[in-house]
Amino acid sequence: xxxxxxxxxxxxxxxxxxxxxxxxxxxxxxxxxxxxxxxxxxxxxxxxxxxxxxxxxxxxxxxxxxxxxxxxxxxxxxxxxxxxxxxxxxxxxxxxxxxxxxxxxxxxxxxxxxxxxxxxxxxxxxxxxxxxxxxxxxxxxxxxxxxxxxxxxxxxxxxxxxxxxxxxxxxxxxxxxxxxxxxxxxxxxxxxxxxxxxxxxxxxxxxxxxxxxxxxxxxxxxxxxxxxxxxxxxxxxxxxxxxxxxxxxxxxxxxxxxxxxxxx
Length: 264
Hints:
The structure is a single chain. By secondary structure, this protein is α/β, with parallel strands linked by helices. Helix content is 32%, strand content 22%. It is built from ten helices and eleven strands. It has helices spanning 2-8, 42-51, 75-85, 95-99, 104-111, 137-147, 179-183, 197-205, 216-220, 223-235, and strands at residues 21-24, 33-37, 55-58, 89-92, 115-119, 127-136, 156-158, 164-174, 189-193, 210-213, 238-241. The longest helix is centred in the C-terminal third of the chain and has 13 residues, at 223-235. The model has no long low-confidence stretch (mean pLDDT 94).
């Protein structure tokens, strides 16, 4: 099974800073039930143990930065101990899943029904395609809120609300560094996350495509059903997609009266 995951999402295609592949578990161990998650956090680790799965497939690495200890006094160390004790392996597909043909950005593009798809960057980050029906930015933002998994902070947009969007780019996860790439694709807007204030302001002021920003977690969760289906079809095993929202932003309070559409 690990060989199949590595074939679908080759570790060599991951960013140099990334930490992907098998993290815990014996490569030859028998697997009958898999849990697919975006994040390995105490809640999803407990879910895996409660469900009796033998493997977690995660998008985000558990051990992202170099560590000198996995003592159970840290949250990550505690998870490592609990998963090993429970016989649960862990495999990570992160940036290698972002760029893959059956990966995160393809799943995100599917939500919007994009046709005539192209790579957003030569490295395979993101996708660009044509919407089934052009929509004004205000309506496309509503659609994004409808098709993406729900989070506390919802979906927001930057740009002219009446701008018609025909060509749409999608870039899962942190997309701020790729705004310049979006601008040269001919896209009218991009769906992404984690765009800082100054990045968005300068991009819009320069006449760049509109930005539709959702929670980081929300742009990556749609991949989970896809990888679950691939595993189920290939190996005939039970696959479970975690419904636990691991977006860390879990509370939202609206402010006072909103001054709308001030920038024209």
